[in-house]
Amino acid sequence: MRLIICRNYEQASAWSAQYIANRIMKQKEKCVLGLPTGSSPLGIYKELIALHRAHVLSFSHVITFNMDEYVGLSPDHPQSYHRFMWDNFFNFIDIKKEHVHILNGCASDLEKECAEYEACIAATGGIDLFLGGMGVDGHIAFNEPGSSLTSHTRIKSLTTDTKYANARFFGGDIHAVPSTALTVGVATIMAAREVLIIVSGHSKARALQATVEGPVSQMCTLSCLQMHAKVIIVCDEEATDELKVSTVRYFKDIESKNISAS
């Protein structure tokens, strides 16, 4: 595991975007990305859009699979993850529409939708890099505490804490937040050749501590990344508030050249 500690969210976003851009440019024929929604990746998406507008980066050979989608929200719903991705990222880059894959929360057979999503990922050759955020309780995608660490794409009930966290996108009304979602599983993410997680703010500090220093546990699904061969967590200073001083010093020491180079 690599832990990249940046000064602030802006630096963390810029570092992550450049890392992803380098991966895309290295894989000239095909690059398969797993992508999240929410506030955490917005800075990264803005940086990637800027690289594209500067004619530095093309997404014409990139294939994407999003992490999740609410059940019952149509793709054109203002708070659907389909809409989020097009409004905040896809509309501003040269990605091919047929290369974009997002779960359909209005599918007539949700279990079939999940199974076909997994099959589609496999058919592309698997995900090269999965980008993700971190829930305040250490969950990734909608793999809430207690989720199986061997889970694949499936239907998942959302906890009250997650609904409260997402209510800000629904006018502050928790009752407007759907109670179920489709989500990739922990094993789906672990199968990616590389995982990059961005973490920002003191509110994520306990989750980061549990992920980096705690035991591997289904109660903090991100802790499974301790078992992944190639994972990078990029965070700001505030997110390290619960880590041991020795842990912070260790990662700052071994990653100092990488931060300064960015």
Describe this structure as you would to a colleague.
The protein is of the alpha/beta class and 262 residues long. The protein has one domain: Rossmann fold (3-Layer(aba) Sandwich), CATH 3.40.50. It has helices at 9-26, 42-53, 81-88, 110-123, 160-166, 186-190, 205-213, 245-261; strands at 2-6, 31-35, 62-66, 68-70, 100-101, 129-132, 154-157, 180-183, 195-199, 231-236. The strands form two sheets. Strands 1-10-9-6-2-3-5 form a seven-stranded parallel β-sheet. The longest helix has 18 residues, at 9-26. The mean pLDDT is 96.
Sheet with most strands: strand arrangement: 1-10-9-6-2-3-5
Amino-to-carboxy terminus distance: 19 Å
Mean of pLDDT: 96
Class by helix and strand content? alpha/beta
Tell me the overall shape. globular
Q: How many discrete structural domains?
A: 1
Which CATH top level class fits?
Answer: Alpha Beta
Number of helices: 8
Number of strands: 10
Alpha carbon gyration radius: 17 Å
The helical percent reads 25-40%
Known CATH architecture: 3-Layer(aba) Sandwich
**Largest sheet entry:** 7 strands, parallel
Would you give the CATH topology?
Answer: Rossmann fold
Give me the strand/helix succession. Answer: EHEHEEHEHEEHEHEHEH
Strand content: 15-25%
Quick rundown:
By secondary structure, this protein is an alpha/beta fold. The chain has helices at residues 9-26, 42-53, 81-88, 110-123, 160-166, 186-190, 205-213, 245-261; strands at residues 2-6, 31-35, 62-66, 68-70, 100-101, 129-132, 154-157, 180-183, 195-199, 231-236. Helix content is 34%, strand content 16%.
